[in-house]
């Protein structure tokens, strides 16, 4: 299966396998900001209505009413919200008690909006280990007391864990509330932290050093020189690095993550991905 075409790509789009409404840097809040989750959902609803209107006129469309009903709706968002909160120096307790519930409220609202507009199959991702990103590790600190055994920031990963714990609970409740819906939650923190902690077993040499960036070890990340910016440096073999640019993972690391996701080992319930091809 090919990559999904971006919804906003005007030329050459092919929606026969689905559509991608994700935008780089998108978050859940503020909800009226361009390309926030709420806006993405509204774009989907417009896309669906437009497709069905054209189909009703006899035009051939890649997705019909049955396609929208039986499609798998993948939701993966929230890490940018968490990252922004900590970068803005929001106190940890406030992130846990206020920000995370607000973020998850937006995700829950998105799922329910899609459901009441005909969606029934959902695959929801938790967030990854924020405290293992070179971008976060490169921020100045007075000492290393907050680093865990694998060199990640314990406080940020604790927030990621709490985010996922609450998101999993929301998914559990929605399964009982939304009749006929199938909602799979996947723990990306467990998948990605295992990759970092046991990186050599997966063939990686650098778990916390960005392949593309500036500054060299230990993180090769600079807040003044971004990847592909003036003066940046890229590694020779990205397949040996877990992290690409301080925030995103390399293709090699993402391949491992994708395989773990598709295995359903880290999912609740543990439905095989192929289940959604037969519903």
From TrEMBL:
One of its GO terms (molecular function) is hydrolase activity, acting on ester bonds. InterPro entries: GDSL, SGNH_hydro_sf, SGNH_plant_lipase-like. Keywords: Glycoprotein, Hydrolase, Signal. CDD domains: SGNH_plant_lipase_like. Pfam families: Lipase_GDSL. The keyword Glycoprotein applies. PANTHER family: OS01G0331100 PROTEIN, ZINC FINGER FYVE DOMAIN CONTAINING PROTEIN. Belongs to the 'GDSL' lipolytic enzyme family. This is Uncharacterized protein. The gene is LOC100838980.
């Amino acid at each position: 299966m090919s990559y999904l075409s971006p919804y906003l790509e005007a030329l050459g789009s092919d929606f026969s396998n689905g559509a991608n409404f994700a935008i780089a840097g998108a978050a859940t809040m503020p909800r009226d900001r361009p390309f926030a989750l709420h806006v993405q959902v509204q774009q989907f609803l417009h896309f669906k209505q437009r497709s069905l209107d054209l189909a009703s006129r006899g035009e051939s469309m890649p997705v019909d009413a049955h396609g929208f009903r039986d499609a798998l709706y993948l939701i993966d968002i929230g890490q940018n919200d968490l990252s922004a909160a900590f970068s803005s120096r929001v106190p940890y307790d406030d992130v846990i008690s206020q920000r995370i519930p607000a973020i998850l409220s937006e995700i829950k609202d998105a799922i329910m909006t899609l459901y009441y507009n005909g969606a029934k199959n959902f695959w929801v991702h938790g967030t990854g280990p924020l405290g293992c990103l070179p971008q976060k590790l490169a921020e100045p600190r007075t000492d290393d007391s907050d680093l865990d055994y694998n060199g990640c920031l314990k406080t940020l990963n604790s927030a990621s864990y709490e985010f996922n714990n609450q998101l999993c609970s929301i998914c559990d409740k929605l399964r009982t509330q939304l009749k006929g819906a199938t909602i799979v939650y996947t723990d990306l923190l467990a998948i990605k932290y295992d990759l970092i902690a046991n990186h050599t077993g997966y063939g990686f040499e650098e778990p916390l050093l960005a392949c593309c960036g500036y500054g060299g070890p230990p993180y090769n990340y600079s807040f003044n020189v971004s990847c592909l910016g003036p003066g940046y440096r890229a590694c020779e073999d990205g397949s040996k690095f877990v992290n690409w640019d301080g925030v995103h993972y390399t293709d090699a690391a993402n391949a491992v993550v994708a395989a773990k996701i598709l295995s359903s080992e880290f999912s609740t319930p543990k439905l095989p991905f192929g289940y959604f091809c037969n519903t």
